[in-house]
């Protein structure tokens, strides 16, 4: 494999001149630049990213740790993060935990060993990154996305799930429904708890009762939504409308209603949460709370890059405002 010294020897210049031509960081005459570029092509030379990172003390890479899920929200969020990294000249190293705490910590250590310049964390609150691993390596700028699993200096960017749950429920109330149920996610997840609290607040404000069985704990997955809707339909008095804690569960609820021969919204109205791409293509299109995934990804990268440049800044906690996307399901 050719080295920079080989290129310099063939071009008849110094290695520093070769470096300036490759990195375009200093003026080099056209004649010398052409000689260097010809030598690079002749030797099929490829610059060493490792050598460059050691010299500059940066790798131009960002690590992201994410919980595995069939929920399309995560894949859409990652897509926005990767696009934002690319536009800013960074590469994204993505590690999927598959919901396994041991694997999460192993992946975390791998990212730290690779000396990524910054870290994005989007895991579950029941699986917290190991403090022992975090303290074993130099402090690294970190942004928690959507929630923060532990206290610290990391910046946090999250959706206002309390307000989102309130908006979704209030929409159903304004449509004239009085028997409104809520299918939430696992209550060990902050967004699930807050969306449930938003539902309860809107119901209480409207003076509406929440009958027994109208609050169902789901799992934020397709199958969980199907099972939750089946349990609601089995009640002596099923609800007229349901706030689903996320769109993935709403997809499952659509299937349960289809199997029961019921129509949306004629028999039961639904509101979801996340506004995944699939939501607008469902039949009928799903009314849902929009989470600005592209904005979340872009903001996370910008905050992280800002933190990398100025690590002494105080912790930031930013909240994005949810918006109702009214479609055909409610």
TrEMBL record:
Positions of the HTH lacI-type domain: 2-56
Keywords, sorted A to Z: DNA-binding, Repressor, Transcription, Transcription regulation
Gene3D superfamilies, per database record: 3.40.50.2300, lambda repressor-like DNA-binding domains
Protein name, UniProt field: Ribose operon repressor
PANTHER family: LACI-RELATED TRANSCRIPTIONAL REPRESSOR (PTHR30146), RIBOSE OPERON REPRESSOR (PTHR30146:SF145)
InterPro entries attached to this UniProt entry: HTH_LacI (IPR000843), LacI/GalR-like_sensor (IPR046335), Lambda_DNA-bd_dom_sf (IPR010982), Peripla_BP_I (IPR028082), PurR_sensor_dom (IPR057343)
GO molecular function: DNA-binding transcription factor activity; transcription cis-regulatory region binding
